[in-house]
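Hi Y.,

Following your request, here is the sequence exactly as I used it, all 374 residues.
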Amino acid sequence: MNTLTKVNLAGIAKQFQIQDSLEKITSFGNGHVNDTYSVLCNDGRYVSRYILQRINHSIFKYPLKLMENIVRVTNHVRNKLTNQDVQNSDRRVLTVIPTKDGSNCYHDTEGCYWRMYRHIENVRSWDYLNSEDQAYKAARMFGWFQRMLIDLPGPKLNDVIPNFHNTPKRLKDFMMILDNDPNNRAHSSKNEIQFILDHVEICDRLVELVRNELIPERITHNDTKINNVLFDIDTKKGVCVIDLDTVMPGLSLYDFGDMVRTATCKAAEDEKDLSRIKLDIKFFEKIALGYIQETGSFLTDVEKENLVFTGVLITFEQMIRFLSDYLNGDVYYKIHRPEQNLDRAKTQMKLVHSIFNQEEQMNAITNHICKNLS
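Below is the corresponding structure, written out as tokens. Let me know if you'd prefer a different format.
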């Protein structure tokens, strides 16, 4: 449990509005950002479980603003589910447990910020897609989440990580690191550097569309990996979208593009055998179908036209981020072996190539889905 003792954790858990009959606290999940624990309460008659998390405020600099976003979003979704008479609505959206003084999170004496959610029972998450059906269901969940938030009233959500998907800025930062080459690593990544320099025009396309008011800003999840969807253990259906730390203003296309990047290639993100890196067109088709079924009613024509391109953009952007970190000495992404970030950059480059090679077919798929659902 890191440097925290069970006594420390029990004291923190008791700062929240839960039963006093706290029985057990254990580490939970395999997340790489926040420290997460399962809290079990049992008074002999009722058993209740909660998720306790220490927010990593070295990454999330404004925990109070982050929690304000999460509470607004979850309350809005819950109210809509209630108005729609959705059964078991508490399983469809995270429930934030307030502290005893009514706050959204607890600020301890060490300067750390803690939050608590009600545990959702009989669900599980997956780190990797196992089937086309699972890809479809996950995409529907992320599309559903966007759809539930299109009418969130103002004010605008807090921008918890400014410039998160500002690809031109990512490129600018990369060029500064490359010019300095602080760890003398540019010589070992010449092909990857040249690929970025040869395709810089990718970075500006969506920014220009937003600037010209051709694509609207929406509320987006911004981390649409498969493990951020909970699936019912019995029915195998998607139940709830989790990990809401990056929910903020953005482009709907970013979420779709990140699904293309993370869910259409069956190989690991740091796979050294690049022959295994390719976009699976069947997985792409299921992701497109699930997502568009939920979002097609509100996406604009320009958004629909750029769905496939955003798969290129987000993958290219992630390549820039991995290669930047490699050149900078691996200061952001955790590594478990030398040149892991370079390997990650290589897989993203190969995936961009794979999307280029199948772009015409991918556009035909999204156009067909959009037409049939209109």
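The first strand starts at residue 22 and ends at 27.

Thanks again,
Q.
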